[in-house]
Amino acid sequence: MKTIPLRLTRRYFALALSSALIPWLAAAGPSRGAHGPGRAAEAQSRSLELSRPVRPWEFLCAVGTRAGLFGNEAGRMEAWVYPLKLLRDFRLQFHAEGRVLPADTLARTLITRPESSTIVYTGDTFSVRETFFVPVNEPGAVIALDVETEFPLEIEGAFLRDFQLEWPAALGGTYSSWDKDQRAFYLGEETKKFAAFVGSPTATEARGEYQTNYSESPVSSFRLGITNKGKDTKLVVIAGSLDGRPQAEATYKKLAAGYANLLRASTEYYRKYLADTVSVELPDAQIQQAYDWSRVSVVQGIVNNPFLGTGLVAGYRTSGESQRPGFAWFFGRDSMWTALALDAAGDFATTRTALQFISKYQREDGKMPHEIAQGASFVPWFKDFPYGYASADATPLYIIAMNDYVTESGDVAFAKEKWDSVWKAYQFLRSTYDEQGLPKNFGVGHGWVEGGPLLPVKSEFYQSALGAEAMRALSNLARLTGKDAVGTELAQAFEKQTSKINDAFWLADKQRYAFALGTDGKPIDEASVLATVPMWFGLPEQKNASAMITQLAGVDHQTDWGMRIISSHSPKFSGGGYHYGSVWPLFTGWASVGEYRYHRAQPAYANLRANALLALDGSLGHVTEVLSGDYYQPLSTSSPHQIWSAAMVVSPLLRGMFGLSTDANTHTLTFEPHPPAHWTQFSIENLRLGNNRLLLNYKKEEGIANPRSPAGIVLEAGRTSGSEDCTIEFRPAISLRAKVQKVELNFKPVPFRVETSGEDQHVVVRFPIKEGKNLLRISITDNFGFSMDSTLPPLGSESQGLRILSETWSPSRDQLSLEVSGQAGREYELRLWDAGEIQKVDGADLGQRPGWQTLWIQIPQDSSEPYPHKRVVFHFFAKVPRG
């Protein structure tokens, strides 16, 4: 069994299926999940803890559905009870040995978990662990301080009252006073509707803010009592109310008395969430961590605003002296892109909640909302502010997300309930079509791009593709709800629309898609990653999509940390341009899913890894909103915990690399994996299909000397719960050079077919998943492959990694040419699978590493280009008939 290195401090490992396991599987049928706790459930019970030295500038948060703490790793925080901001700049001071020590100067280590985050402060003779915790469903927070000291130590907490509603609403006069009975500051306002307490059960020596004719101080503070020696625990409690002082006081008491139980409940909430959604066991510990944390990050986007309802917000960031905490309010298109990840992971309940919320604010003419501020109920938001329905893409995305939810979950009743809503959305979409029959952006609402030098445009390729996909989605919803004639009509319209957009945006001479049509109706020749959104839905032709992907795989588009919106060679490019040069993990996720769909696994895997590695850097466990297009660092305005960015770890893994899709209405699972060559095993558990929970174990076997025992792919598929009949269509990718010898299900031959694209082949096998054993073995010869694990560069650096631009096989499959690009003077390593078939390699050196054959590619130093291209050619031995 290959040893898998642990990353960071996470006590977590990926299970490897050893060769010895296969006979056992054949004898025992479905593995442990059918007879006891599954492997994923066991793994999820282990700690998801991440840790590293403190970066004082990085964002730190603890969030629940009703409250949040936002700050930085130096320990300066602000507190919210939605939609109310309570305070900012909360920080600690340590009174020790006659000195007053600011805590931020002693912050040493960060430890983060799904339910809480901890900063470890270390002085010469003491240590304090400050844990920030927000219960899942309570309007408040607790800051726990675990103290260990040699000499008397007292902690002081200080803050600035910032008692205001979230933008764009506001309160009138606000005030604070010390409540000696609660040992807390009471924060209030003139109507006495909004209230809060900030204090501690052990608080002493309170000092309030004041203002006189002669001096003033905005700071409020209190001490927590002296710890003379040894260990002690102190609490700071923050509670808010949107319904008066008694409710705030009750919450304050509940948090103070029940902290330990609430913390255990939150820990269990996340453990159960991870165990109940799609779980994976991967040979890559970093992608494993990132996937688990991204599921946590996504569900942390759920916010319950008592005045508006419960929905998905876009992301979190400190607000500073303003009342705008990043994008911690509700967005239409953000929710819909996130919903696709939630469906893939089997969290249908959260998707339904998001769809219900957005549909509640649908405009009378059918247009879907773009954004709804948390303070929207206090102002004429949809009348006097320009943001409510600013986007055009939220409308088709709503139809697409609704269909995805209903297809994957089987909730046809919800489709019937919402039919009038989706039909109205489609009618609005149709009303925006121009004379060419394409949905407009200009004068209707922005597509993806909201401002900057890429505008104005008449219709983006992105927007037109979403419009076409909405037709297909609505066609399926119509059939599911018994409207067959409407479904047939929409399906025919979709076919015509797909052809129309391909003709309108494809630039044959440039071998790429136009970014948009200008206001004059002519294509705008600007290569953009936005073209991968049509690829996500399979709309472009294979050869056109592949040509476009080759261009997007270049270093001018693809950085080590993700995809730029346009090429760095464009005269409109700026690395800091929010919509004209920066890198969005959202784009990177789009590209990865689209590239996998069109069988371009190398750039797709690089993009998946880029997003995954971002989740383990920056704000730990979270994926930021947007990064510089020039250097590896987030933009200064980025929201560090962005929900749809985390979704773009989940979707590229499940929808992209694994090619998973479920149709609960036909009881069918499709599994079309494109794993890296060095991934010899992985498992997927808790796949939901109707009332079934499914388990998939994938293993790739090496070839051996005996020609009668070729290499193979082994799939164990089983039901861990449920009783409905269901079918799997297994479509694993293999090399264009590979030859399938036979396919057996439980040691008996079964029919199969092989589908060939320009990039790979897929063995297609369809079989029922029955109770007991379902062991499929595909025997393959000559399944050559290669792979590379990309890495992030040092913070603030430019790209340094290798780009694999294209792969071309000779017609006889005895020669493979790679076009690569790398940093001048650098050497790169590729790992090879089934390398014994190689006769020689031009343009690179074969080497040997323990357990793997490797290829070393040296990029010339004397090139005039900073990232020169190079051609590598594999020559293979002639195939020898086996038998």
Account of the protein in words:
It is a single chain. This protein is of the alpha+beta class. Strands 1-7-8-9-10-19-14-13-12 form a 9-stranded antiparallel beta sheet, with helices on one face. A hairpin with a 3-residue loop joins strand 21 and strand 22. The longest helix has 32 residues. It is globular and about 90 Å long. The protein starts with 20 loop residues before the first helix and ends in a 7-residue tail after the last strand.
Short description:
By secondary structure, the protein is of the alpha+beta class.
Q: Gap between N and C termini, in Å?
A: 30 Å
Helix content: 25-40%
User: How many strands, which pairing sense, and closed or not: the largest β-sheet?
Assistant: 9 strands, antiparallel
- Give me the secondary-structure category: alpha+beta
Keyphrases for this structure?
883 residues, 53 strands, alpha+beta, 9-stranded antiparallel sheet, 17 helices, 26% helix, disordered N terminus
